[in-house]
Amino acid sequence: MFIERKMKAARLIRPGTIELQEIPEPEIKLEHDVLLKIETAGICGSDIHYYKKGRIGDQIIDYPFTIGHECTATVVKTGKKVRHVTTGNRVAIDPAVSCGFCDQCRIGRPHTCRQLKFLGCPGQMEGCLTEYIVMPEENCYPLPQNMPHARGVLAEPLSISLYAFRLMKPKPSDTVAILGSGPIGLCTTMAAKQAGINKIFMTDKIESRLQAASKAGAAWTGNPDKDDIVEAIKNVHSQELDAVFECCGDQSALDQAVSLLKPGGHLLIMGIPEKNRISFDVHQLRRKEIKITNVRRQNGCTAEAVSFLDEAGKGVDFILTHFFELQDSGTAFNLLSDYKDGVIKAVVKFR
Predict the structure, then answer these.
(1) For position 1, what pLDDT does the model report?
(2) Does residue 1 form part of some domain?
(3) Is residue 15 in a domain?
(4) What is the pLDDT of residue 275?
(5) How high is the pLDDT of residue 270?
(6) Whether the Cβ atoms of residue 95 and residue 157 lie closer than 8 Å to each other
(7) Which residues of the chain, if any, have pLDDT below 50?
């Protein structure tokens, strides 16, 4: 007699409400798949969009739904043809599952795969705020033996920042601004330091995050609610900047970025706007010949991110500010959506 196994999941049942539910435990169906027991899950800004609005653009939640995509896990079971991980391995997860066959995958762009499925994305895959998930073995990256699972959740956001710098192709002499000092902005600062860049300007509206920006390596920080960011940066750095990383999804930050960039400068958009449309002063863009790059998640940078975290050790743990158990996921989302208590990265730890 078949008995369906159940597991617990923190599910979004309507905007602003998460409920702990029992749902069927997933099973391995493909030979290269891996059954994973989730150990830690980080909450991302995009998760907050889904939590508050139930959508990002045309990606709309059909309730109930499990969100979350930043996670580490332990391998519980493997498919018949799995070779790269084995039962008991501790792993960080790349949440993007690509088909491997479409035109994008064939030219080395699996992150824009035509059939891409992403953890915690409506219409694609249920998320990782649950006890077990199934993923292809190629999405599992072994964690170093001494790396805490909680630190491993930073591999996903850090991989995006590392990919942004691959796109930028930086020189150590470059001067950059990072607008938004949340987890992505802080990871981008650390990636900038790794690239040898020391002239880093950072902004945020929350003072505790500006303090974290200084800890991450920013040479200057400013609050756009208190300062004219463009004038303030120009007062300490008379020349315009080589690159600006927009990490907060805010229209005013995009305007600041264009004003801060030198002719031929590079704007890299990493934040997710709440609105469907953004705008630019097209005359500044054309007169300066500004290059604009949208950073779409990451492409082949997860292993590098895990190595980075291993080398950095406890030096990155300041980003991990709050910890919760699965049943308290709703409290974590409320904290993050209101930016309370100096929160930067909230982490759900599974027993």
Answers:
(1) 52
(2) no
(3) yes
(4) 84
(5) 98
(6) no
(7) none
Residue 102: inside a domain, yes or no?
yes
Structure tokens at 205: 């509206």
Among candidate residues 54, 93, 42, 46, the one with its CA nearest the CA of residue 343: 42
Write down the pLDDT at residue 27. Answer: 96
Three-state secondary structure call for residue 177:
strand
Q: What is the CATH number of the domain that holds 337?
A: 3.90.180.10
Cα gap 205→180, rounded to integer Å = 8
Residue 314 belongs to a domain: yes
Sign of dihedral through CA atoms 35, 325, 70, 62? Answer: positive
15: containing domain: 6-156+298-349
Rg (CA), the chain: 20
Q: Is the pTM of this model over 0.85?
A: yes
Looking at the structure, tell me whether residues 148 and 56 fall in a common domain. yes
Residue 4's pLDDT is 79
Name the residue among 266, 210, 262, 220 with its Cα closest to residue 241: 262
How far apart (Å, rounded) are the C-alpha atoms in residues 7 and 26? Answer: 9
